[in-house]
């Protein structure tokens, strides 16, 4: 049976030429009026497509700049498969040319799909930044994988200037491209919604000026949708009502596959508000459900809720796995609920809720503990963009409203309704976030059921302990996954196990002696042990199963800052090409005990973080 499945799957995998290609985005949404057709853009000198203000458009047709002597440094085999491309396709000349921006699937005689850059704006660090857009990303085509029916938009990052490049060069440096290439695939392997990375190409001739001159690179990346909250912010700032309606309709019908797949408006019982299928149903508090029934919700309100719910789940996963994006501006927040645009991201080393990986984030706006509230702040901005559509209720399709907007008389009621829906969506966001966070944390701790008291006694107490003793967040879960319950029966046994969670040099807690540090962990282990016994019983075989299930959700490998720095150093300065493939393999299979390629290196990368490389920070320059 298993082999039949994989045969069917492999028979669907094809060459890049055979791969289905569509342009739904550019055919349904308005193009830049300066270059309305692919022909108009193609005829223009490349420089004419350089930065300017673009109005009334969702995108501009623009081709990648050609690159000299690109070298394909790596391909994600998982990405190849998910797109439906056959293994080995990466060795063809066409593949190498396409992912480096030297070929695309359009010509004047036969047409095809012409590349484009998206137009959007954004709120950056709490201030309105105006028009931004794909300043160095160019989408090549969309493709639907016939085995999964998932449609992806494939794009190149670092492919040259577009009308949205502002003062910058349209290029990406190798350093940040390596980081994005690996983390995209790592998050996906951890089950965290993310944009993906197919390949990494080095542009040895492109000398890119940042703080120093650096080699350039292109990541070929793909996502179900590249739309951002900022995509709505820009037309909202310009009063372009028509564009907002078009974009919202596109999101519902094309990104989310139809209005009927959005949360239901009528019966807001448990099935709509329940977090995800794998979890036991959990409804909202009764008063909230009743409130829902009092306000008429139209399809745009349901769309807004869907976007909020998706983002709630994604942030919950970031919090549960200690991931930080580092720059959660609205232009980096995905309508589809994907982790997006990797700049100064990081995984948590020692647990510290104040930590931000962004060197320039002095206010800690994008720190670990602020991520859930900052995404909600972004969702309120999105609610303002959609406010008119949400607030119009059943009148949303009335001809006069569509053409002229709300009348003065009707405005107060519209505003009130929009505010109520946004506020209520805030409650829903919190509920979905908490449910998913608890679900993931319970799983990480090996629990099969959830108890009201777990949050305080297990989750919070664990995080406080890790913070107080300066212990590594992700290592704790992985190491706990191999602790047999049998060794935790006595206080002495628990204190014996406790130093497993210490760093090589011990714990770092201020005011703690070796003994009091052990005691604090032992106390937590006792509570945890009792919960595991409740869920799994005391059978030794069940405990082996419990350990295995924990290792399946607690990664042994995560691409931490210090590892990525070493990879960058080895690729860029020492011409090492093999390291990238090995680290990608680890990122794609993060729960493995070993990978069988380089034992010492694997142990080092999964082991203690070198003391002076913990909680590293990155600048935004990339
Ligand atoms: P980011 O901070 O990377 O999310 O980028 C914010 C905005 O700046 C986006 O519109 C990017 O497309 C644009 N941008 C960043 N770096 C460059 C670059 N080197 N060339 C052109 N545009 C860029
Ligand atoms: Mg961005």
Short précis:
Keywords: ATP-binding, Magnesium, Metal-binding, Nucleotide-binding, Nucleotidyltransferase, Transferase. Its cofactor is Mg(2+). With 622 residues, the protein is of the alpha+beta class.
Q: Describe it for me?
A:
- The chain is 43% helix and 11% strand.
- The chain has four domains: 2-226, no CATH class; 250-441, no CATH class; 456-551, no CATH class; 561-613, no CATH class.
- The chain contains 22 helices and 14 strands.
- Strands 2, 8, 9, 10, 11 and 12 form a six-stranded antiparallel sheet that branches. The chain has a two-stranded antiparallel sheet with strand order 1-5. The chain has a two-stranded antiparallel sheet with strand order 3-4.
- Strand 6 (121-124) and strand 7 (127-131) form a beta hairpin.
- The structure holds adenosine monophosphate (AMP) and magnesium ion (MG).
- This is Selenoprotein O.
Any descriptors?
globular; 6-stranded antiparallel β-sheet; alpha+beta; 22 helices; 14 strands; binds adenosine monophosphate; 622 residues; binds magnesium ion
Provide the fold topology.
Elements: H1 2-12, H2 24-28, H3 38-43, E1 59-61, E2 71-75, H4 77-83, H5 93-99, E3 106-107, E4 111-112, E5 116-118, E6 121-124, E7 127-131, E8 137-144, E9 151-157, E10 172-173, H6 174-189, E11 196-209, E12 213-223, H7 229-237, H8 241-255, H9 270-273, H10 286-294, H11 299-321, E13 323-324, E14 346-347, H12 371-391, H13 399-404, H14 411-444, H15 454-469, H16 473-480, H17 491-497, H18 514-536, H19 540-551, H20 561-572, H21 578-588, H22 599-606
Antiparallel strand pairs: 1-5, 2-11, 3-4, 6-7, 8-9, 9-12, 10-12, 11-12, 13-14
Helix pairs in contact: 6-20, 6-21, 7-8, 7-12, 11-12, 11-14, 12-14, 15-18, 17-18
The structure holds adenosine monophosphate and magnesium ion.
